[in-house]
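For consistency, the fold was encoded as tokens, as this record shows:
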Amino acid sequence: MSTGHTESAGPRATPRTVGAGELTRPGGEVLTDRKGRHVVRHGDIVVKTHMAEEAAGPLLARLRLAADPRLAPLFLPPLRLGTGDGEDDGLGIQGGLGIQGELLATIDGRLVTAWPAATALGLAEVERDVEAAPWEAAAELLARLHATDLAALHPLSVPPAGVCTRLQRVMDHMETGLSNAGEGSAGPVAAEILRLAEDVRRAHAALPPWLREAPSRPGGRVALIHGDWHLGQVVRAPREPDATATTTAGQCWRIIDIDDLGWGDPAWDLARPAAWFAAGVLPGAVWSRFVDAYRGAGGVALGADPDPWAAVDGPARAVTVQYAAGAITDHLLRGTPFDEGARAFLDCARRLASGT
């Protein structure tokens, strides 16, 4: 399905097993608690509770990919889980805790994973000095990810990337928010929201069908892709002896949040910065730096066309719709005001809906 290579790496240090008590420990530093995910840090581990809609089978396949030593230079690996009673042979139960495949737990009906703590690039940090963000290092990571030889990953299963599922889920959440708020309510604010939502619906309907139906375009290149890539999915991790994706002494960059990892069109992973650029959120010089670094590292998403937009246009449109729908949902369900970025994507959705 893909030409290229799979990274070879020296033996990855065997991570310690995270027991049931650590998975269910109260307190901790809450890193994320929105959009159905809860992420909390306890010392040197991070425990993530996944969305209620998440299916165990595909998630476990993605976790096994991230844990594979052949992909060690790319991903922050998930930690091994156990019941606390010693070695776990694939499925252990302790007080309602289920361990699946040593990497995935079920607690009170929700899927839970554990990860080594690392330093993420926060949105505020990137916005504060967007030009100083590690665009080149991130582009190199993506290029190396997309060069992975899918066939060489056998016997691991590579699921389809979750890009279409994510887009539809965001649209469904917007409709749920509108339904809960009451579409028939009066007032100028409600009228504006209904108008914005209709723009998003029309922009979504105007997308090429493949963007809603499959993670790759008909006859297009297929690669191993992240599926929800942005700078917040890159972390600073302690340098390993075999680390190659380093930018400064003593630290290296790794990819996190593999919930949508799988095969698909690699242009999807460039769609967010492309959409930011198109919306006027990302300076053109930074977008060019990112594209140049990606091409320079052998990235395959853009093909031979010197104009990157030939490859990223469709996925960037889909991401624009996703951002706009998410902004409306956040406003309806959480009272989040439309900031400059949200307004930019809502304006883009309006132009996509009108075909301009």
